[in-house]
Structures are given as structure tokens and as C-alpha cells.
Amino acid sequence: MNQRLEVLLVSTPVGPLGSGLGGGVELTVLNLAIVLRQRGHKVTIAAPETSQLESFSIVEIPGELQTLAQTQNRHDPVILPDNSVLTNLWNYAQQVADQYDIILNFAYDWLPLFLTPFFKGKLIHLVSMGSLSDVMDQAVHQAIQQCPGSIAFHTHSQAETFGLKEGYFCLSNAIDLSQYQFCAEPKNQLAWVGRISPEKGLEDAVAASQKTGIPLMIMGKIQDEAYWQTIVQNYSDAPIQYLGFLSTEKLQEQVRQCRALVMTHRWIEAFGNVAIEALACGVPVISYSRGGPTEIIRDSVTGWLVEPDNINELVQAIQKLDQIDRFVCRQQAETEYSLDALGDRIEHWLFQVISS
Ligand code: UDP
């Protein structure tokens, strides 16, 4: 199909774009905006105030940020603060809906999912996390029933957490490969990248670094300060270095010099952007065999998938890193995770939605 679409991207309400609070969603919004623009579609982004996204102008929406879904309990009801940015974003979307062919939601929240049938088939959702709460599960199932085709996940493992085997689109993810440089000869150090928050399980990577004596470079937003302080105190003699929350350019500069990226998540990771960013630099990924990374890493070829929560297995995998060809890691990123491949997948979904 050659149709040029008007697309509204409605960003996450947990933080402004560029703050790091949105985790992987921030990079996903950017990459989808880039590929849609490259293919001639007109893209508008609505996001919380002070958001910044490279060359894209943003419709900034004021209001209180939304509480993180991963800090709530499974049976908690929906929480909306007074003057909620989530509500304000969707008031805005409703006002301008007539100007768009498609409205793509990135919020992991009940409200936009509930609104699906009110947007006349235009409102679709890219779900960014696995199942965390009963209300969200119900809202996802209801959106699929009322508007088939309106839900996409990043991986099948993520869809499974909602008890789904079909009826959704699988978008995977991608990165701008030109921003990541290949490094054939790393230093003797490991990388850990992500939001510093309990579901990401940083302490296991630190424990593995302590056991092997190989320095661990830690990069990412400290989302839970108390959690971070506990790790620092419990592993005071581990060879770790915290480098802060880095721009993509600086991030890849650090990651590519590492022998491996270590992923030690406790939850079912929906995708794991950091895995494909590492592969793009030629860096193998050692990950707990849980969620999205199991669909990304080719075990023993571009990394190692190890038993979840097993630090000894992490250590064994670190000792086998020389068996991995870093060039093959970069190649995998090029064939499966280019922006072009993402462009094909997102257009496929959008045109499917439009034609139905
Ligand atoms: N990230 C970053 N700078 C850092 C650390 C992380 O920009 O110093 C980004 C990284 O590029 C990735 C995101 O944070 O896009 C983490 O996404 P991921 O999908 O791995 O996990 P999430 O936070 O969504 O659970």
C-alpha cells in the first residue's frame, strides 16, 4: 500500500521523553517516529511537558506523572493523580482525533485501553511490559475483543503473560544501527544496562562480577535509590563502577568495550532493548532465560541463556565468552533489528488496522 498516513504517537505518562523514566519506551517512540517519517508518513508526538526527542517537535502536555505500574500490586485498582498527565494526554488525543488515521498509544495504563472502542478503530496500543495487574489484563483482553488488531506486543513471551497465544501483532523492536559501532577487541569488563529498580535484578550481576573479579560497568537511571544503596552496601568490595544515565552515543561507547552485557531481570522482560543495543556493538549477551531475551539471544551463538536467578550459571557463562564470535552478534542485529525491518513490521500492522 502506498498511502501516506497521519499518525499520532501518544507517549508514556510516567516521565518526559529524554528523562530515562520511561525506560525502553523512550527509544521505541523515537525509532518508530523515525521509521514512519522515513516512509513518508506524518508523525506527531504528544508527551509530558519538558519532553525532548531529537529533531521531532512535541506537543507538550502538562500534568502529574503516572505512578509506575511495576511498583503496584497485582490486585490494586487503577490510580490516577489529580490533574493527571495521562488524562490530559487522552483529552488532547480525543480533541484532535479527526486529524489522524492512526493513534498509537505507548502508555501501559488502563485508561487508553478502555478508550479503544471510542476512537472508531483508530486507536491502537503497543504494550510495553508483561502482565502486572488484573485490571490491565482485563483491559488488554477487552480491547482485543472489541477492536481486533488493536494490540501489539514486542515478543510472544510477553503476550503469553497475558494468557494470549493469538489475536495480537508481534512488533519486536529495532535500533538505528548506524549509531552503534562494532568493537572486536573489548577490555576485560562486563556491562549492565537498565533502570536501577528491583525488577531488573542488578544485584545478581554485581554478585557475578564479585565472584569472577571482572569489573562491571553499570549504566542507567537510578529509579529506586534505596535499592541502589542496598546493593552498594551489600557488595562494597565488588569491582563495580556506576557511570550514570548515558545518551545513546555515550552508552554504546561504553558497552562496546565490554566482553558481554549481563541481563539479570527478575520479571518477564517484555523485550529488552539493551540486548539488541549490545549485539549491535558486537557484544554477546548473557541473560536469564526469561521473557524477551529468550527470543533475541541465540544461545551459544550470540550469547548465553542461563537458568533464571542462578548466579553460578552466570559465572559459568562468563567463563565461556571466548566461544562467541562478536562479529556474528553484530550480524544478527543487522539482519533482525534494523530500522528498515521495523519499518516493514509497523507498516504491516498499521495498514492491516486501516484496511479492517
Ligand atoms: N538507556 C539509556 N541510557 C542508559 C541506560 C539505559 O539510554 O544509561 C536506555 C537503553 O538504551 C534502553 C532503555 O534505557 O532503550 C532500557 O530499555 P529496556 O527495554 O532494556 O528496559 P525497560 O527499562 O524498558 O524495562
UniProtKB/TrEMBL annotation:
GO molecular function: glycosyltransferase activity
Domain spans labelled Glycosyl transferase family: 185-321
Domain of life, source organism: Bacteria
Protein name as annotated: Glycosyl transferase family 1 domain-containing protein
